[in-house]
Each structure stands twice: as structure tokens, then as C-alpha cells.
Amino acid sequence: MDLNRRHFLGIGASALTAGLAGCSASSSEETATTTSSTTESSQTETATSTPEDTSYSVSMEPVGEVTLDEPPETVAHYFPDYGDMAVALGHGDTVTSMGLPSRFHVNHYDELDGVSFDTDSLTKLVGDSGISKEVFYNLDSDLHMIDPQWLINNKGFKLEPADIEEITNNVGPFFGNTIFRRTDTWHNYRYYSLYEAFRKVAEVHQEVEKYEQIKAFHEEYITDIQTKLPGPDSRPNALLCWQGSNEPESFYPARLSGKGANKKATDDIGLTDALSDTGIQGLSESNRGTIDYETLLQVDPDSILLRGHEDKTREEFRNTVLEFMKNHEVASELSAVKNEKVFRGGPIYAGPLHHFFLVERYATGYFPDTFSGELFDRDELASIITA
């Protein structure tokens, strides 16, 4: 988007930061002179034409309404779940950045013909000293698909409201809502579900029809899964935690009941939170540190979902992490380890395409007597994305 086009980007009055210039329409006059051969007189005819106004507005808290003259060509992202949405809509080529590109897991695209993403092309927003305003100037993106309150309230980023206002005025508006978790005290505005946020991204890229097709595909898929699930009393609980080591000795607990978008896959297959009624809070809920195997034994969860291993295949995870736990003096006493119900916990920021594969992973892993193989049609989904 060139500088002239950027003048057509704006934010509504309810925005968090100062608005950009509103949309405008220009007019031109063309004067035509005709000469009559019989009278040798001339007359001037003035015609006025007004270009069609193609602007449109999309609204999402906390920023409010953002007005664009056409879909953005370059979009700065922090959250991989939103990046996954862009890829699903066929606009992965607009994504210019991630907070931490290493957290944008894209191996699932390999199973969707014609769908791919090169994470090497991304600019990393988070540096050793936080996030610099200059990185946004250097990216010069048409839109920042980032919840500005996330940037302001994470003190390690060292961005202030005045910085957001400056970037909005000089580069482009912010638009986005933190959806991956629901435990931040500063998030006192509306939360969006995964598909509610996905709809907003589709409106930004003017791909609502494609969104509706993916949503319909998703609803049919989840309905089919849920009609085949065992009854609630036959579903296991799960301890969700994070530890990236292949030889884990301690874990950062998370709450499966947190209702953020990254819990949608476990919600969809009916898993319950092993930490319910234990008094153990998740990492994002408190300043609590890690828990060890002795604490895990007290809880003795039916299963463990361990984040930090999304770059491994199931077999690689079993041969490293699970194998270590099976040979560990204390870990080997856990029911989840004995029954080999220790699984990769999924990405922290799971978008709609991640979700298709996560539901399949969990359904086949937890209920192998009911589910096996591929549970959704890769070709059909890919054909929607690439149409």
C-alpha cells in the first residue's frame, strides 16, 4: 500500500488510539469541446464523474471501528492464531511478522495441497529489550492485526499508549483481540471465540464467503466427532502443562478449563481439567512456578498434555519425552505414563486450521477404539482455502 492509499485507512471514534484521516472521495472534471462544421461555432461540455467509494468498515474490541478502502496488502501480526486465519483465507502472503516466529507452527499445511507458509520471511517483533517502535516503522504494514492492549500491558514489551497512538497515526491502525486465553486481568472488554475472531479477519480481507465455507466444513466435522464420542463419564481428565525439555523434571501448569481459543480442541472432544478442585492455578493466573512429579502424583491425572513439543511428530515425542518418563523413578508411577496417555499439548496460539488437526490428534489419541486415521477430508478443505 503506497502513501496515497494509506490516507484511506481510518479508525472510528470508539478507537483506543487517535484516528487516522477518514475516507474521502475525489472528483475530476473533463472538458470536451466539439466543433460544428456548418456554423464554425464551438461549445464546451463539462462532465463530472465521481469514483466509486469502495471503503468498508470492520469493528472489533478493544479498538472499535477501522475503515479501509481495500483489503490490506501487508499486515503485521503478533499472534500465530491470527496468522493461521490469514492462511486459511488465502492471504498468508500478507503476513509480515510474528511476536516469536518459532511459535507459528506450520507443519500442518504440508497435508493441505497448495497451502504453505514460509516462516523465514517473518520479522520477529520481540527483541532482547522488548518490542521497539522502530520495528513497526520498518515493516510499514498497512494494518497491525494485534490487540494493542496486549502490547501495552505486557511490561516486558515496554510499549506505552502513546507509542500505539504514534504508530497508528504514522504507520497504520491496530485491529485485534487477545483470544488465546482468558486469564488476563487487564482484558476487561469483550472476548471473542476462535470463529468470532476468524469472522472479523475474514471481513478485513473481504473473504466472508470463504470463511462461511470453512465454518460449515468445521461444524459438520465437529458434529460428526461429537456424535461418536463416549459418554461424559467415559472421558478422561487431562493435565495441561508446559515444559520444552526432552527430559522433564518439572512443569508449568495451565488450566484446561480456561476457555481461551487454544482450549477449543480439548473442549470439542469433552476433556475435563485434572486441576479442578486441586487449588493449583495455571501459570497465567498467578506467579506460581513449576510443579514436580511428587505434586503430579497427588493429582494423578488420567492424561497429560505437554506443550513445547509441536515440532516433534507423535513418534518422536514418544521416543524422547514419554520414554524418559517411563524410565523415571517417580514419573513412571503416574497413571498417565503407565497407560501411555501423555501427548503433545498443541500450540499456545491455535488457529482454525491448527484446530482441525488438533481435534483429530486428540480424538484418535484418547479414543482409539472409536477414531482412527484421517477424520476430515484434506482435499476438500484445501480446495476451499485455495479457491
Automatic annotation (TrEMBL):
Domain of life according to the entry? Archaea
* Record domain Fe/B12 periplasmic-binding: where: 75-347
- The membrane-spanning stretches of this chain are none
Which portions of the chain have biased composition (kind: Low complexity)?
29-50
Q: Which UniProt keywords apply?
A: Plasmid, Signal, Transport
* Pfam families tied to this protein: Peripla_BP_2
> Which InterPro entries did the record assign?
ABC_transptr_periplasmic_BD, Bact_iron-sidero_bind, TAT_signal
- UniProt cross-references to PANTHER family, sorted A to Z: IRON III DICITRATE-BINDING PERIPLASMIC PROTEIN, IRON(3+)-HYDROXAMATE-BINDING PROTEIN FHUD
Please give the name of this protein: ABC transporter substrate-binding protein
